[in-house]
Amino acid sequence: MGRTSLQWPIFLTSLLSCTTNQAGLTVSPSSSQLFEDESVSLSCEEDDSSAGWTLRRNTTEGRMSQCGAGWGKPAGSSCKISHMVPLDSGVYWCESREGATSNTISITVTGGPVILQSPVLPVMEGHDVTLHCKPKTPPSDLPAAFYKDGSLISAEPTGHMTIHHVSKSDEGLYKCNISRHGESPPSWISVTGKPTTTAPPPVSAAPPPASAPLQLVFRLVCHLVVFCPYCISTVLMVSLCRRRPTENDLPVSMAMTPPTQAEQGLDDDFDDVITAVTTEHHF
Ligand SMILES: *[C@@H]1O[C@H](CO)[C@@H](O)[C@H](O)[C@H]1NC(C)=O
Ligand SMILES: *[C@@H]1O[C@H](CO)[C@@H](O)[C@H](O)[C@H]1NC(C)=O
């Protein structure tokens, strides 16, 4: 017992956290476009704070530059930028000390009179998405025209447009326009596939996506990645139990198992696991 038995849980915990150690970047206010002088807070929502996530960005001014290096004010795993300027436009992401990266968020800051408020994160297929064409000066619900990939798609009396049940074909470059105010910068809206567990797509939707087998493979790999550490830890615990047969009164079934069998096949190991686990619980 003693030192080694303490080291195992630590080792196993770090093995497990390898698979879950990731961060998601969120932005508040949640808009892909901002007016000059607005402030914004970007947060690396992390599973493991010890991974040391920092916010980085690519802009026309600099590449891979870190929050605090001439822009933004770091606060833990968040970064606050007061008084955004058009040069703050760019791609933002979180990066851990080991180089793992989060999702990216694209932010456009305009000195112009109109912004298009659109989702910063990809929209899930089948969900609704609302766009708001917002002028810098109130009132904020003026009639607006919305464009996708350069073509007019809708004129809305109150400046709000909802796309129902988005599909991959709704992906594109959107902008809007308010009479006597002006035009917003363009923003890309991306659509991600549904998780395979949700209901089938509506009848009007396109034929089943060709990516279905790919998603299955992806899920399978995910399950394996999550399952493997448990297998490894179980095997390790069994071999640990076998290595200290003299310290405790061992159950008969384990005492009879010669240590040399540890090198044998997985099938044997799993039988032993079940025996070992059930007998240990009777202590
Ligand atoms: C940022 O810029 C670097 C260097 O040009 C490039 O390698 C990297 O892919 C960029 N990252 C993003 C998220 O655009
Ligand atoms: C869009 O912009 C054009 C010119 O920039 C303008 O003539 C038109 O009235 C605008 N449309 C709307 C609905 O704001």
Enumerate the spans where pLDDT stays under 50 for 5 or more consecutive residues.
1-20, 198-216, 246-267, 273-283
Per DSSP E runs of 2 or more residues, the count of β-strands stands at 19
Overall pLDDT confidence: 75
* Biggest sheet statistics: 5 strands, mixed
- The separation of the N and C termini measures 17 Å
Overall SS class: alpha+beta
Give a written overview of the molecule.
- Strand 4 and strand 5 form a beta hairpin.
- Strands 2-9-8-4-5 form a five-stranded mixed sheet, with no helix packed on it. Strands 13, 14, 16, 17 and 18 form a five-stranded antiparallel sheet that branches.
- Helix content is 24%, strand content 31%.
- Helix 1 runs antiparallel to helix 2 and helix 2 packs across helix 4.
- The protein contains four helices and 19 strands.
- With 283 residues, it is of the alpha+beta class.
- The radius of gyration is 27 Å and the shape is globular.
Element layout with pairings:
Elements: H1 3-20, E1 23-28, E2 33-35, E3 40-46, E4 54-59, E5 65-66, E6 73-75, E7 78-81, E8 90-95, E9 101-110, E10 114-117, E11 123-124, E12 129-135, E13 144-148, E14 151-156, E15 160-163, E16 172-178, E17 182-183, E18 187-189, E19 191-192, H2 212-243, H3 252-255, H4 266-280
Parallel strand pairs: 2-9, 11-19
Antiparallel strand pairs: 1-3, 3-7, 4-5, 4-8, 6-7, 8-9, 10-12, 12-15, 13-14, 13-16, 16-17, 16-18
The chain binds 2-acetamido-2-deoxy-beta-D-glucopyranose (NAG) (2 copies).
One 2-acetamido-2-deoxy-beta-D-glucopyranose binds next to strand 8.
